[in-house]
Please model this.
Amino acid sequence: MSGDDDEFDQFLARKRPLFRRPSADEVEPPHDVDRLVLRQARDAIKPSQAERLYRGPGWGVPLAVAATLLVCLSMVLHVVMPKEAPETGAATLQVAHEMDAAPAAAAAPEPSADRFGEVTNNSAPPPVAARSVPASAPAADAARAGAPDRATVASPAAAPRAAGAPAAAWRADSKSWLAQIERLRAEGKTAEADAELALYKRQHRAYAASPDR
Amino acid sequence: MNTAITMDGLTTPIDEPRFAPPKRARRVAAVSDDEDAQLMLAYARGEMRSFETLYARHRAALYRYLVRQARDTEIANDLFQEVWSRVIVNRARYEPRAKFRTFLFTLAHNCFIDHCRRAKSRPQGLGVEDADAADLLAAGDDARPDFELERDESSRRYRAALATLPPEQRDVYLLHEESELSLEEIAHVTGVGAETAKSRLRYAVGKLKAALAAAEDLA
Model:
């Protein structure tokens, strides 16, 4: 009996079979059954695969949605809201006209000035509203006192004008400024004329490079 | 090359099975059960590839267990699908407290017990060994090589001897042979003590040995 026990113990330990098992005993599940099982397994995890498409942090989705909405809103406002650019362009064109009209303004009669920075009593400073109108059109002088000009209001020269108005009234507008420079040259004050021209160019260059452009 | 239409409408070659059958399943080096558990957990996380690996490892052994238990391929196919269906459904609740193989064969054992309870009121169909014997008679022996006949005869005797075992002994023996579980694990699966399982296995092996020897003497 101990021989049987040893034999059985070896069988339990899978060291030695007690009898020969036929090789034809190896049966396999049909391929159709394989496909059914695998299909069921695949279908079972399909929803969880859809959930795992986004693997980022939990706050990522709300942040992305908010950012998208913000960009869309900005684009809509950019398209729908009226633009200020045409007015700015008009102001630029106005300044260009002023520079073109400068020689003509030099030929036109101007109020006399005793010295640089001082205006005579009978020549009142030109009205602010008339600064941007070309000086070569005499008929436009009457309109200078009329409706205010938007380009003049938008001119960046307004700030230095407000600061130094009593010192140099002709700097209030381009035409008067250029006329003053010509006048200084005619009087032989070349150094003052050059300094004034340099200041004029500096201010107008700053204007050309300003963010409003 | 022959092809078959799958349920997905795709054609797949019949000559190239998706899972290469092991030459001798019980001699294949046992894979790490921890690895099986990790595969199951990976499948629960949604990795289909892990399930395919797990399925390829255990399908043949599980199927053999069910075929020998049910003694009917149709019933075995149904039970096989039911077992894997339970694995799939319970994937989220799976915890690697025991070997995956133990978990799988516990499901298989319970499925077969449920089937027996359901089938008590129904007449039994033709068994596998009866069907095999009928096929052998119908085909005739003249057209088949001798080694095939001998192999089939040996297989038929083995299945016939297995069929003579009491269900409890056959269950323990098949679990030992097909699942490669230890005695303690077999006892856990069948819900009996380890000594009871060992006793049943000893009786089963003794009866099988005697039945096969007697059959060979008769042949």
Notes: The longest helix of chain A spans residues 31-51. Chain A touches chain B through 33 residues (CB under 8 Å). DSSP finds ten helices and no strands in chain A. Confidence is low (pLDDT under 50) at residues 107-165 of chain A.
